[in-house]
């Protein structure tokens, strides 16, 4: 009971974190977002109508739930790979200025840019105006549409602006990246078919309303990336808890990392595996972690600035980059 009370207090303190203000060197700083360790999945029992708490299924999926679950894998996934420029896939993003303060918009943009700088295979163009209802290029429309959620991958709605909802309680960098990664095609780490080798699920502590969150999905394709206790896609230990006790725990010497405030190294690697390689049709194809380790750059999987592995070949480097020795560089550097 005492633990439950502490948990309620913790939840309340998170709510109070919204819109707080602090006095600092005579400058009033407005904090329009939650604590950086806040995790929206830990509070997801408040949300209804989403698959696994924060994935919105397309309308045609709702008519056939089994069908929609089968769609949640990398082979049938629609990726944001139809806008190739200079060897990089570009994703257009509109952060709705009606919904966010300047601070909030900056936090969202910074969290997304952080994914770009770290993965280096995908770029984001931030639109300063809302495109028309049938834009020639698909785009993500980030707005407050109630809770923290996204569709899985690119959908048929993307030319009208594919909704991705980030409400006040989602505005922490890792949370934002988590939801963006759903949009780019990432599933939850817990759904991996090999997860029982790394974590145990404590079913006695799970809310009845959270039964699909912990399902193993045989067709989640993690592209050979090891199970990752630091991933932004791994729930924190009290997700969907009905009593404040842990719902998942590690079964190995490694612990679930609750301190991280951004996506992990292996999250970035997985983005590379999904979006680095360009086929003859100018669309992406995915490769495995082993394939990546054996050959980081090739004519189809070109490397980015300052990446090693081009072996003297300019055509192994993206865009105008040239290979100097084994490194992709700007020609004027
Ligand atoms: Zn999620």
UniProtKB/TrEMBL annotation:
Q: Name all Peptidase M12A domain ranges.
A: 67-278
Matching entries from SMART domains are given as: ZnMc
Q: What class of enzyme is it?
A: hydrolase
BP GO terms, sorted: proteolysis
Give UniProt keywords alphabetically: Disulfide bond, Hydrolase, Metal-binding, Metalloprotease, Protease, Signal, Zinc
Question: What is the disulfide pattern of this chain?
Answer: 148-170
Its name, as the record gives it, is Metalloendopeptidase
- The record lists the organism as Chaetoceros tenuissimus
Signal sequence segment: 1-17
Which InterPro entries does the record cross-reference, listed alphabetically?
Answer: MetalloPept_cat_dom_sf, Peptidase_M12A, Peptidase_Metallo
Name a Pfam family for this protein: Astacin
The cofactor remark states: Binds 1 zinc ion per subunit.
Known PROSITE patterns for this protein? ASTACIN
Q: Which residues bind Zn(2+)?
A: 178, 182, 188
């Amino acid at each position: 009971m005492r633990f439950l009370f502490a948990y309620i207090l913790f939840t309340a303190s998170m709510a109070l974190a919204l819109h707080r203000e602090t006095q600092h060197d005579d400058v009033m700083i407005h904090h329009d977002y939650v604590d950086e360790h806040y995790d929206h999945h830990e509070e997801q029992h408040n949300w209804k109508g989403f698959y696994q708490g924060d994935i919105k299924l397309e309308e045609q999926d709702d008519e056939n739930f089994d069908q929609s679950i089968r769609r949640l894998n990398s082979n049938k996934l629609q990726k944001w790979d139809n806008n190739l420029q200079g060897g990089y896939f570009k994703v257009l993003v509109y952060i709705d200025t009606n919904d966010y303060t300047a601070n909030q918009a900056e936090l969202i943009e910074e969290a997304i840019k952080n994914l770009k700088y770290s993965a280096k295979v995908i770029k984001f163009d931030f639109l300063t105006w809302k495109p028309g209802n049938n834009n020639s290029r698909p785009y993500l429309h980030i707005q407050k549409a109630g809770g923290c959620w996204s569709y899985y991958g690119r959908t048929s709605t993307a030319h009208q602006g594919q909704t991705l909802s980030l409400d006040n309680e989602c505005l922490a960098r890792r949370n934002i990246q988590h939801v963006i990664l759903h949009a780019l095609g990432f599933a939850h780490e817990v759904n991996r078919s090999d997860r029982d080798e790394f974590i145990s699920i404590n079913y006695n502590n799970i809310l009845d309303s959270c039964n699909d969150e912990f399902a193993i999905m045989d067709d989640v394709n993690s592209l050979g990336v090891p199970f990752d206790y630091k991933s932004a896609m791994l729930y924190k230990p009290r997700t969907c808890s009905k009593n404040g006790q842990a719902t998942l725990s590690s079964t190995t010497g490694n612990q679930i990392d609750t301190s991280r405030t951004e996506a992990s190294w292996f999250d970035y690697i997985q983005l590379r595996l999904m979006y680095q390689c360009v086929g003859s049709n100018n669309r992406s194809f995915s490769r495995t972690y082993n394939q990546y380790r054996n050959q980081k750059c090739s004519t189809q999987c070109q490397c980015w600035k300052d990446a090693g592995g081009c072996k003297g070949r300019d055509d192994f480097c993206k865009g105008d980059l040239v290979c100097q020795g084994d490194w992709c560089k700007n020609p004027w550097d």
